[in-house]
Automatic annotation (TrEMBL):
The active site is at residues 67, 139, 141, 146. The record marks 149, 156, 158-159 as: Part of the allosteric site. Allosterically activated by N-acetylglucosamine 6-phosphate (GlcNAc6P). Coiled coil: none annotated. Catalyzes the reversible isomerization-deamination of glucosamine 6-phosphate (GlcN6P) to form fructose 6-phosphate (Fru6P) and ammonium ion. This is Glucosamine-6-phosphate deaminase. Gene3D superfamilies: 3.40.50.1360. It catalyses: alpha-D-glucosamine 6-phosphate + H2O = beta-D-fructose 6-phosphate + NH4(+). The gene is nagB.
Length: 266
C-alpha cells in the first residue's frame, strides 16, 4: 500500500486528478471505477476544469460507479446517478451510454439481484477496471460494504449500517424518505481493479484511516483489505493522517520514491 500525505484536501484532489489523467491518456479505452460522496467532489471539479481546458478527454472512457440507493428513483437529486450527472458526466465529453451506475430503481428483490449480476457481467465484458476511485466511511466501509462484509463479496443488495444512514442524513431534507438499502459492488469486485486509489480528508476519517492502514486485516474495517491489493494508493490530507503511527515513515518513503523517480538512488 502506498500512503501519500499531502497538506490540504485540494492537494489530495490534484494528486488524484493527475492519476486519473494518467490512466485516461495511457489507455485507449480506459475503464474507471467511480465513487460518490463529499470526498471526490473536488476531484470531479478538477477533472471538469481540465476537460474544459482541453487537457483531458473522456471520449473513449467507460465508467462504473460503486453503488446506488434502492428506494429512490434515478431522477431523485440524491440518487448516485443524479450526483454523477451533476458533478461529472453532464460537464465533460463522456458518452453517457458509457457511464454505468448500478440499476436500483425497482422494488422487486429478484429484479435487483438480476441487475447486480448484470453489473458484474458488464464490468467483466468491458475488460475490468483500470483505476477504482474510493472514499472511506467513518466505519471503514468502501462502496457500501459495511463492517463484516465478506472480502469475497460481489455486487449485491446491501443493508446500510445505522451509522452510514446517519452520516448521509445531511443530504436529505428533514422528514424525507432516506434509503437504507443499496446495490454496491462487492469487495471481491473492487479488488479485481488493476489499481485502487482511496482518498480521505478531514479529522472525521482519521480513525478509519488508521484502522485501514495500520490495523489488522479484518472485515470489521472493510477498507483494511486494501493492504492485500497489489496496487493500492491511499491519498490523505494532514487531518485524515493525524492518527497514523508511521506518518514520518510514509512521508520519508514518498521523498525517497520521488528521488528514485529522478534517478537519484543514493
Ligand atoms: C459512495 C461510496 C462511499 C463513500 C463513503 C465516504 O459511492 O462508495 O463508500 O465513499 O461513504 O463518503 P464521504 O466522502 O461523503 O465522506
Amino acid at each position: 500500500m502506498q500512503v501519500i500525505i499531502l497538506p490540504t484536501p485540494n492537494d489530495v484532489a490534484q494528486y488524484a486528478a493527475n492519476s486519473v489523467v494518467d490512466v485516461v491518456t495511457e489507455n485507449t479505452n480506459s475503464i474507471l471505477g467511480l465513487a460518490t460522496g463529499s470526498t471526490p467532489i473536488a476531484l470531479y471539479d478538477e477533472l471538469v476544469s481540465r476537460c474544459r481546458a482541453g487537457l483531458l478527454s473522456f471520449k473513449n472512457t467507460k465508467t462504473f460507479n460503486l453503488d446506488e440507493y434502492i428506494g429512490i428513483s434515478e431522477c431523485h437529486e440524491q440518487s448516485y446517478r443524479a450526483f454523477m450527472n451533476r458533478h461529472l458526466f453532464n460537464l465533460v465529453d463522456i458518452n453517457s451510454a458509457n457511464t454505468y451506475v448500478p440499476l436500483a430503481d425497482s422494488l422487486d428483490p429478484e429484479v435487483l439481484a438480476r441487475n447486480a449480476k448484470a453489473y458484474e457481467s458488464e464490468i467483466e465484458r468491458s475488460g475490468g477496471i483500470d483505476l477504482q476511485i474510493l472514499g472511506i466511511g467513518v466505519n471503514g466501509h468502501i462502496g457500501f460494504n459495511e463492517p463484516t462484509s465478506s472480502f469475497a463479496s460481489r455486487t449485491r443488495i446491501k443493508t446500510l449500517s445505522k451509522s452510514t444512514v446517519e452520516a448521509n442524513k445531511r443530504f436529505f431534507t428533514k422528514g424525507e424518505f432516506q434509503p437504507h438499502l443499496a446495490i454496491t459492488m462487492g469487495i471481491g469486485t473492487i479488488l479485481e481493479s488493476r489499481a485502487i486509489l482511496l482518498m480521505a480528508t478531514g479529522k472525521g476519517k482519521a480513525q478509519a484511516v488508521k484502522d485501514m492502514i495500520e490495523g489488522p486485516l479484518t472485515s470489521m474495517c472493510p477498507a483494511s483489505v486494501l493492504q492485500q491489493h497489489k496496487k493500492s494508493i491511499v491519498i490523505l490530507d494532514e487531518e485524515a493522517a493525524s492518527l497514523l503511527s508511521l506518518k514520518e515513515y510514509y512521508l520519508w518513503c514518498e521523498e525517497k520514491r520521488q528521488q528514485l523517480h529522478e534517478g537519484n538512488l543514493l
